[in-house]
Design brief:
2 strands; single chain; elongated; 2 domains; 353 residues; mainly alpha
């Protein structure tokens, strides 16, 4: 007795399936073009927002460096960061008024008036009297913030922090690249909908149930990983890496194209890695791995997570740890998902008649 094929009851030929696929793909491409055109009008704001972490890190490390914390090690900075986070949590999330911002050491000079008086006396003794021998030093602080020189110096500092472009057309190509990426994001619901209209028609009802249940969770995990990376990991990692430049007496020249590629790739790696619970659930549902094995091999899993975190992140240990710790938490979440229901069958089996 021959087995019944999935498409035995289909009234469409293979060529008709290809025609339907072509129609859905064209509709998806039209949606992508419309989304890219819409994104073209506000890509400038997005590019400026993308520059925020790199500009802030450059400014904090290379411009405003408080004198009393200039010799802090990186581990002391990490400790201070955790103390700030924990002190805020103890206050119930209430933002504590920050301390007064330390003065920019580049915006003032300290002058000893006593030394000036003595030098003036040496050059013109008939005009300037000699200060008393027992006179104490008189330190005078001269600020430049509101002077033309101070404004010029501030402008020079700020311009040196801005990412660079090498060729005349690089800025325009960056704008087109960001517009295309934003277009994909804006039109992604429409693109997924068109693909789902084609794929969903060939799935059983219980298979579509898996998609309806876990697709929103997958999107949420991906967006959560991207947001965690861009707002939590990248600013901290940039400051950590720039500290090595100051330690070696170097100053980085950041290219805008390289920075956008770096930010997008690292954020993408975090978004993809946050799919770990769903990968675990998929392997458990098709009976390749059991939830019991996940629990028994937890130590091995942590070793694999550490290796993947090293490969998927930049070369610094900070970003590796900031990926590894959430993935260990998500691994436990994956065990909980796998333990919710004992798999009776593979989701790819046909539904009972």
């Amino acid at each position: 007795m021959s087995k019944k094929d999935l498409f035995d009851d289909s009234t469409m030929t293979f060529g008709e399936h290809l025609e339907v696929l072509r129609v859905h793909l064209w509709k998806a491409i039209v949606g992508l073009v419309i989304g890219s055109i819409v994104a073209f009008y506000f890509s400038r704001d997005v590019i400026i927002a993308i520059q925020t972490p790199i500009n802030a890190a450059m400014h904090d490390v290379f411009v405003v460096k408080p004198v009393d914390t200039a010799e802090k090690s990186q581990w002391e900075a990490i400790r201070d960061w955790f103390e700030k986070i924990f002190s805020r949590s103890k206050t119930g999330g209430v933002e504590i008024a920050p301390m007064a911002k330390p003065p920019d050491p580049n915006m003032f000079i300290e002058i000893d008036a006593l030394e000036i008086a003595r030098n003036l006396h040496e050059r013109a003794p008939e005009t300037f009297a000699l200060p008393p021998e027992d006179a104490e030093p008189a330190i005078v602080v001269v600020h430049f913030e509101d002077t033309p020189f101070g404004k010029w110096l501030t402008g020079m500092q700020n311009s040196s922090m801005i990412p660079r472009t090498d060729t005349p057309d690089e800025a325009f190509m960056i704008y087109l690249k960001v517009s295309l990426i934003l277009g994909v994001i804006i039109s992604s619901p429409w693109i997924f909908y068109q693909l789902w209209l084609f794929i969903g028609a060939g799935l059983y009802s219980h298979e579509r149930k898996y998609v309806y249940t876990y697709l929103p969770l997958s999107i949420g995990l991906f967006l959560g990983g991207v947001a965690f990376c861009f707002f939590g990991v990248i600013p901290f990692v940039l400051k950590f890496l720039f500290e090595f430049n100051t330690w070696l007496g170097l100053r980085p020249e950041i290219k805008m194209a390289n920075w956008i590629t770096f930010a997008l790739m690292v954020s993408l790696m975090f978004g993809v890695s946050f799919q770990l619970p769903l990968v675990m659930l998929f392997l458990e549902r098709i009976s390749l791995v059991s939830s019991k094995l996940y629990r028994e091999k937890r130590r091995h899993a942590i070793l694999v997570i550490a290796f993947l975190s090293m490969v998927l992140t930049p070369s610094d240990p900070v970003s590796m740890m900031m990926m590894m710790i959430p993935l260990c938490v998500l691994y436990e979440f994956g065990i909980l998902l796998c333990g919710r229901q004992t798999p009776n069958k593979s989701p790819f089996e046909a539904a009972p008649a």
